What we know:
This protein is an alpha+beta fold.
Amino acid sequence: xxxxxxxxxxxxxxxxxxxxxxxxxxxxxxxxxxxxxxxxxxxxxxxxxxxxxxxxxxxxxxxxxxxxxxxxxxxxxxxxxxxxxxxxxxxxxxxxxxxxxxxxxxxxxxxxxxxxxxxxxxxxxxxxxxxxxxxxxxxxxxxxxxxxxxxxxxxxxxxxxxxxxxxxxxxxxxxxxxxxxxxxxxxxxxxxxxxxxxxxxxxxxxxxxxxxxxxxxxxxxxxxxxxxxxxxxxxxxxxxxxxxxxxxxxxxxxxxxxxxxxxxxxxxxxxxxxxxxxxxxxxxxxxxxxxxxxxxxxxxxxxxxxxxxxxxxxxxxxxxxxxxxxxxxxxxxxxxxxxxxxxxxxxxxxxxxxxxxxxxxxxxxxxxxxxxxxxxxxxxxxxxxxxxxxxxxxxxxxxxxxxxxxxxxxxxxxxxxxxxxxxxxxxxxxxxxxxxxxxxxxxxxxxxxxxxxxxxxxxxxxxxxxxxxxxxxxxxxxxxxxxxxxxxxxxxxxxxxxxxxxxxxxxxxxxxxxxxxxxxxxxxxxxxxxxxxx
Length: 534
């Protein structure tokens, strides 16, 4: 797997920042948690650790980097910012300056006239309305429409309407802008939420792939024992050392163990295909990992990690996207409630209009030449005001709902961190006990294998011991998987950057625990063989 994928996080940041001022909050790198990063980075033997062999093959950092680069669900989440930005621009459209034009004619009938006008108008930020225009009216007008006539050079008019109560401090247009801005700010946490969720799934798929590969290797090792022993038994039968039934029984073991190998390979292939959903090539298509990319061992387990839950909880609340998203929703509902409170006020608008005709008079009355100014007050109020009162009631209830949701989310985050921390601590102890059990199983198996070769132990009992040792080996593999899953769950619960944490895990040396591909040879004294009589 090309390691250049590990550098895609910086490119991803640049790509997101170019779309939104708020998107950098989605994948910001917060201070590393003391439980893991500092233990590794401040190791007194850090230089020696760097010199040790690093895990080979495909690492978790490669998978997460590929995820950041081209995983479809993350790409979808990135579009939330673009959508919200568009909605914000659209909300500002209520304050666009409007060009107005009109051309009306009455070419037939008793009153023949022609009217043309041009103008500009716009909604003002503080709820007002301003328009300015020019119009010209020619011909004969009905007496009740005398204002449509103008002097020969036309008329200029300026109109300003300003709310004094309802709509002055707040109106629907401003609320739409504020809510659109909140939605745009919420795009960052929504992106982070998707990154954490996708990284959790990718991490589970990756460690499942590593585990299934180790189990396959363990089953292949068990099969190899029976195949090697088949040659020994064949030679022993010919020499009269073993009975022919031992050879037949060993052939049965070979067939059974081949079936187990095939089952293990089936799970391994399935896990490889599942991992390809998150591991993608440069064009964004799923990439099934090659067998050569499978790590030889798990990374080394850090069994002395500790978390100060009280300190980490405060930081986790500020990092996790769920409370942030709910807070943005709460603010949006709050603006709806403020608008409803403003709608309880009566409409009281100050109205002013100024106009002036220019040019020779169009009629003998000459009643259009003077400057005209109209000022006054317009008012309206619904007596029951049920719309506003109902809106206040519903938005108040929604705000209480969201406050309870925020409280519950905070409790859930605290619970997740405590559970993950408990799981991590106990998982390390489980790994230790599983390794002890496997070493003991290897010791016992070695003794009984020598006893079988010397004719003191029958093949059936030896098979039981080999099967038990194989089961213990697999349990050790699964215990290591559980530790790394617990570590990942704790990191995600704390809201830490998945790629940064994955790169730290990738920098750990390979584990020195016994297991598939790392089974030590045990030397047994000849007088310590089970079944041997003096």
